[in-house]
Amino acid sequence: MQANTFKVRVDSIRDEAHGIRSFRIARVDGKPFEIYEPGAHIDVTAPSGVTRQYSLCGDPAFSDFQLFAVKREPESRGGSRSLHDDVGIGCELLVGQPRNLFRLDTEARAHVLVGAGIGITPLLSMAYRLAARSEPFVLHYFARSEAHAAFLPVLSQAPFASHVRFHFGVGSGDLGAALRECLDGVQDGTHIYTCGPAPFMDEVVAVGESMPAVTQVHLERFGADPAAVDMGAAQGEFDVKVASSGQVVRVGKDQTIVDALAAIGIEIDTSCGEGVCGTCMIDVVEGDPDHRDHCLSKAERAGNKVICCCVSRSRSPVLILDV
């Protein structure tokens, strides 16, 4: 679990769309929240005891409260179901400090936000910031229907209405063409930010990277795709060396780096256990990480300077970590 957690009180609950509910929270101690950058997410522990990550979707300029939204998942293991069924106004929850692996790029000449379903949540906070700064952006929101589009009233009025384009009922076979139309004519130096179901984001990445004017595609995942990771590759044992003390611990075939370090008394904060939230990222001093996460960018993976200790392994016999 993440070490820096605190209690909040649910001040309001709103049904934003079919199966999507938003929760506005305030700190129980009455203090303001820390300022966060758009795209950040927090850990939320439901009454069931299950902890999940949810994007902050309110205006990041306000610190008196935070807003997050939850889609009720049919196959919920106790996270979204508990938040929908067990939480009412006045309930207290345990949440973590905001973490951000999905920031707006300050070098971008223009921003294109592309979301689907509940994936609108981190993009909404980005839209608040971009609108406040009068920066050029457009937000394309894909949903099954108007009834499935969260925050529709907010997005349909100032300051967002002139920037938002809605796309309802676009089938998977038509998605590529729709995205190419969305991105046709974007200016050089444009950055794309996308969040939604994995197949949707994969299509956005494929189309975006085919556009010469697009500099980079950024994405946010909150669930690991088992098919995307080859757990058979480099599954052998390896050693982890602690840079600060010189201690060496063997990481077994069926053991994580987090568990191996815990065995010698070194606790690494974790949350999702699937390599999507970034809580357990540690700097790499030396060695060749075998990245199996879903949160590092291509550039970060290529640089081999950090590793997600809950899922990733090592291609080299020894991995020296800055712990």
Present the secondary structure layout:
Blueprint: E1 5-17, E2 20-27, E3 41-45, E4 51-55, E5 66-71, H1 80-86, E6 92-96, E7 110-116, H2 120-132, E8 137-143, H3 152-155, E9 164-168, H4 172-183, E10 190-195, H5 198-209, E11 214-220, E12 238-242, E13 248-251, H6 257-263, E14 281-286, E15 289-290, H7 298-303, E16 306-308, E17 313-314, E18 318-321
Helix pairs in contact: 4-5
Features:
single chain, 323 residues, alpha/beta, Elongation Factor Tu (Ef-tu), domain 3, Rossmann fold, Ubiquitin-like (UB roll), 3 domains, 5-stranded parallel sheet, 7 helices, 18 strands, FAD-bd_FR_type, flavoprotein
How would you describe this protein?
- With 323 residues, the chain is an alpha/beta fold.
- It has three domains: 92 residues, Translation factors (Elongation Factor Tu (Ef-tu), domain 3); 111 residues, Nucleotide-binding domain of ferredoxin-NADP reductase (FNR) module (Rossmann fold, 3-Layer(aba) Sandwich), CATH 3.40.50; 94 residues, Beta-grasp domain (Ubiquitin-like (UB roll)).
- 19% of the residues lie in helices and 31% in strands.
- The chain contains seven helices and 18 strands.
- A six-stranded antiparallel β-sheet has the order 4-3-6-1-2-5. A five-stranded parallel β-sheet has the order 9-8-7-10-11, sandwiched between helices.
- A hairpin with a 2-residue loop joins β1 and β2.
- α4 packs across α5.
- The radius of gyration is 20 Å and the shape is globular.
- One of its GO terms (biological process) is methylation.
- What gap, in angstroms, lies between the N and C termini? 17 Å
> Which CATH architecture of the largest domain is right?
3-Layer(aba) Sandwich
CATH homologous group name of the largest domain = Nucleotide-binding domain of ferredoxin-NADP reductase (FNR) module
Shape, principal axes of CA atoms = globular
Supply Rg.
20 Å
Number of domains: 3
CATH class of the largest domain: Alpha Beta
Following the backbone from N to C, one meets helices and strands in this order, namely EEEEEHEEHEHEHEHEEEHEEHEEE
SS field, number of helical segments: 7
Strand order within the widest beta sheet: 4-3-6-1-2-5
User: Helices and strands: which structural class?
Assistant: alpha/beta
Biggest β-sheet: count, sense, barrel? 6 strands, antiparallel
The fold-level CATH name of the largest domain is Rossmann fold
Strand content: 25-35%
How many DSSP E strands? 18
Helix content: 10-25%
Global mean pLDDT = 92
Pfam family, one: Fer2
Keywords: 2Fe-2S, Flavoprotein, FMN, Iron, Iron-sulfur, Metal-binding, Methyltransferase, Oxidoreductase, Transferase
GO molecular function, one term: oxidoreductase activity
Domain 2Fe-2S ferredoxin-type: 238-323
